[in-house]
Specification:
By secondary structure, the chain is an alpha/beta fold. The chain has 4 helices and 6 strands.
């Protein structure tokens, strides 16, 4: 099965300062492990950048850049988006088809917005998803802590079965791109 690693919105403005995600430095470390595993298996690494017309996520600003500490390569793929859906008005679906991707491994930010929306859209498009359970994060809301939001979405997304394709949860340390150990 052909995999791609989709890293959503792990950008500087969401990893430091006012909007810093829960355990952002640990998230960056885990994503570096995932990207290394992906590259070793020759699976595409796709970085999704959220952007807005103004503010800390404005295209090209320091906050829009990938978070400090992330390891990238020139053959990684960049997808720019303007909504919580990594597929909407982007070339992501076309890219996945061009690379023969049949399964998505997803991690990144923010759990209840862009990660959740992209996972659901991927399922709707027929892609099974491995959600890296300890490699997505968010910030506390007015009613829930980041830890509660992450746990809720891990449970909710992994229990969905109406799309056909399913979400499987794996911790970063359990992820394998080895074809002998399928993620499905």
């Amino acid at each position: 099965m052909n995999f791609a690693l989709l890293v959503i919105d792990v950008q500087q403005a969401l990893c430091e300062g006012k909007y810093a995600a829960f355990q952002a430095p640990l998230l960056v470390q885990r994503i570096n492990v995932l990207t290394q595993k992906s590259r070793s298996a020759k699976a595409p690494v796709i970085w999704v950048h959220h952007e807005e017309p103004e503010g800390p996520l404005q295209h090209g600003t320091p906050g829009w850049q990938l978070a400090n500490g992330l390891v990238t390569r020139t053959d990684d793929i960049l997808v720019r988006k303007t909504t919580s859906d990594s597929f909407l008005r982007t070339g992501l679906e076309r890219l996945l088809k061009a690379h023969g991707v049949e399964h998505l491994m997803i991690c990144g930010l923010q759990t209840e917005y862009c990660v959740d929306t992209t996972v659901r859209r991927a399922l709707g498009l027929g892609y099974p998803v491995t959600l890296v359970s300890d490699a997505h994060s968010t910030i506390d809301s007015r009613v829930l802590t980041a830890t509660q939001i992450i746990a809720h979405h891990n449970l909710t997304l992994s229990c969905m079965d109406s799309f056909g394709p399913r979400v499987r949860l794996l911790a970063a340390s359990e992820v394998s791109f080895d074809p002998a150990k399928p993620a499905e």
